[in-house]
Amino acid sequence: MTKSTIIKYVKAPLLKKETRSNLEEKVRQQTDELKVRSGQLRQGADREKLAEEQIHIRTKAMEAALDGIFIIEAVNQRFPIIYANPAFQKLTGFAKNEVIGQDYFLLYGADADLRVVDEIKHTIDQGQSFHGEMLNFKKNGKKFWSSLRITPIRDTKGSVTHYVGIQTDISLMKQRDLEIEEQREELLHVTRVGKLAEFVSSLAHEISQPLTAILAYTQAAQRLLKDKEPQLQEILQYIINDDLRAAEVIKRLRVLLKKTKPVFESIDTNALINETVTLIMPHINARNKIIKFELDSKIPLIEGDRIQLQQVLLNLISNSLEAMESSPESRELLIRTSLKNTNTIRVEVKDSGCGIPEENMKKLFSHFFTSKPDGLGMGLSISRSIVEAHGGRLEAENNPDRGATLYFTLPVARKENW
Amino acid sequence: MSEGKSIIYVVDDDESVCRALSLLLKSHGYRVETFTHAVSFLEYNHPKLPSCLVLDIRLPDINGLELQEKMIKQGINIPIIFITGYGDVSKTVKAIKSGAIDFFMKPFTAATLLDAIVLAIIESKARNKKQAQIAKIWRNIKTLSPKELEVFRLVTNGMLSKQIASKQGTALQTIKVHRGRVMQKMQAKTVTELIQFAQKAGLTSSLS
């Protein structure tokens, strides 16, 4: 302790009592203030540390994400990229230094779909979110399908400062979708051609009836007028000639639309059902229906034309869906396979729809019979001819509770053939 | 005209086709009966005359091929000419295999149909003759006593009288008497003829 301090200390008791208490009060106040301030400082330091940690974790997360993440500046109309995570670099093929500071839209490449690019520009110009799929090009020009979401980031005042984008490579999914779409198209084509052929065949039959009658009437008249009325005889011959000409036209039409020969191969019916349901799944989902399976895994292979049998299945399933269309509480569709006997398998498509009125049961499989306002009345008749061409039977029955079951049988493949 | 006695049945759901074919065939001297339903044809009491059925393969009640099967079951033994407005090859093959005389696509000319009908009538006569023969054999068989029937069966299956006698433990003379009565009742001149009768009646394989 120094001399002066001692003096001060000694002097202190000499101060007025009033003054002394004031001073003590001040010191106490200052001490408290100091305590608070140092506490604040400590807290501030902790908070800063915490914030740093959080930023660090968030950055690490962005860097680790498998989806491409990027941030672009909104204030600058060039929309320069200020951040791009490694996944984005991998996705686009551009290195970090090739991306940062670049105009975002330059990255789409010259071959990008300009309409989509414009749509993105337009959406983010309005400060809205964009979500869409587009064909992108990597640095090396390689195409890929990308699912893209761009969302605005706003400051406290609500104005857009940045955009964050998330980009995913969906090429594989897209490829699968395309394949399914192609298969569906192919099947639709077959169905359309099949329907046309059936239509022409029915038309040919309808026309051949009166042609048969006309020909027989005329030839009967010719016979009755034998050796008489040469002028009438000549006219009758002209009628016959034209009748046969019309018959020839029908015959040519028939040859033209002759169905292509079915290609028979060994088929796993359960696998075929799964394949077919994949094709029609969007329709089932769109109608909010459920499809259930009871597939007997032990049923043997059958011999058949894959496309034609798919056509039958599609037809039965879409009929069932239509039968359940009107009632939202009818939702369940069941596909069941079983072994009817050692030589025959059975495939059922059971719905919980409106069922088949008894008076329609008999006509169900005839050409042009339909209960639908826009139906052609060809689906079930074609299906039946396909199943019969495979050596099976296609039948319908109403379920005891509700809805109907359409089922067909198919002969099991003969072992010696395989 | 000899065909005057023959009956041509036409089964087609189209009334005008029925009427036209009827007029055409009548103009050629045939007796014609037409039906728009297969069932009414089946219910018809078919006279025992040379006949032919002109049948549309697709009918509203049962199809032509099913009618063909039903006819076989009911013993209606009439040759069939199928006609169709559809180009159906597989059904043609099946129909011909099940004994149809011919198969025509509609429309067909009178000459085509008439030629086939002539063949069908010949076939029908042959079938009727065979049927009459078989009927006569069966009438004769029914006159045999149980003992005679046994002898008839054994003889027509190639057994000698001696073998039959020892098999049945009967005197040879008795068997010979039975055998003589069988020959007489069956109106057979020789054993060979007797065996032919048994074959026609479908009896020879039953014991062998």
SSE layout and pairing:
The complex is a heterodimer of chains A (418) and B (208).
Chain A: H1 3-11, H2 17-64, E1 68-73, E2 81-84, H3 86-92, H4 96-99, H5 114-125, E3 130-137, E4 143-154, E5 160-169, H6 171-224, H7 230-256, E6 265-267, H8 269-286, E7 290-295, E8 302-304, H9 306-325, E9 332-341, E10 344-350, H10 358-361, H11 379-389, E11 394-398, E12 404-411
Parallel strand pairs in A: 7-9
Antiparallel strand pairs in A: 1-2, 1-5, 3-4, 4-5, 6-8, 9-10, 10-12, 11-12
Helix pairs in contact in A: 6-7, 8-9, 9-11
Chain B: E1 7-11, H1 15-27, E2 31-35, H2 38-43, E3 51-56, H3 64-74, E4 80-84, H4 89-97, E5 102-105, H5 110-141, H6 146-156, H7 161-168, H8 172-185, H9 191-200
Parallel strand pairs in B: 1-2, 1-3, 3-4, 4-5
Order of strands, widest sheet of chain A: 2-1-5-4-3
Main structural class of chain A? alpha+beta
CATH class of the largest domain in chain A: Alpha Beta
Straight-line distance between termini of chain B: 48 Å
Question: For this structure, what is the CATH class of the largest domain in chain B?
Answer: Alpha Beta
**Helical fraction of chain B:** 40-55%
Description:
- By secondary structure, chain A is of the alpha+beta class.
- Chain A folds into 4 domains: 34 residues; 107 residues, Beta-Lactamase (2-Layer Sandwich); 83 residues, Helix Hairpins (Orthogonal Bundle); 153 residues, Heat Shock Protein 90.
- Helix content of chain A is 51%, strand content 20%.
- Chain A has 11 helices and 12 strands.
- In chain A, the strands form 3 sheets. In chain A, strands 2-1-5-4-3 form a 5-stranded antiparallel beta sheet, with helices on both faces.
- In chain A, strand 4 and strand 5 form a beta hairpin.
- In chain A, helix 6 packs antiparallel against helix 7 and helix 9 packs antiparallel against helix 11.
- Chain A is elongated, with a radius of gyration of 41 Å.
- Chain A starts with a helix and ends in a 7-residue tail after the last strand.
- In chain B, strand 1, helix 1 and strand 2 form a beta-alpha-beta unit.
- The radius of gyration of chain B is 23 Å and the shape is elongated.
- With 208 residues, chain B is an alpha/beta fold.
- A 5-stranded parallel beta sheet of chain B has the order 2-1-3-4-5, sandwiched between helices.
- Chain B folds into 2 domains: 130 residues, Response regulator (Rossmann fold), CATH 3.40.50.2300; 64 residues, Winged helix-like DNA-binding domain superfamily/Winged helix DNA-binding domain (Arc Repressor Mutant, subunit A, Orthogonal Bundle), CATH 1.10.10.10.
- At the A-B interface, helix 6 and helix 7 of A face helix 1 of B.
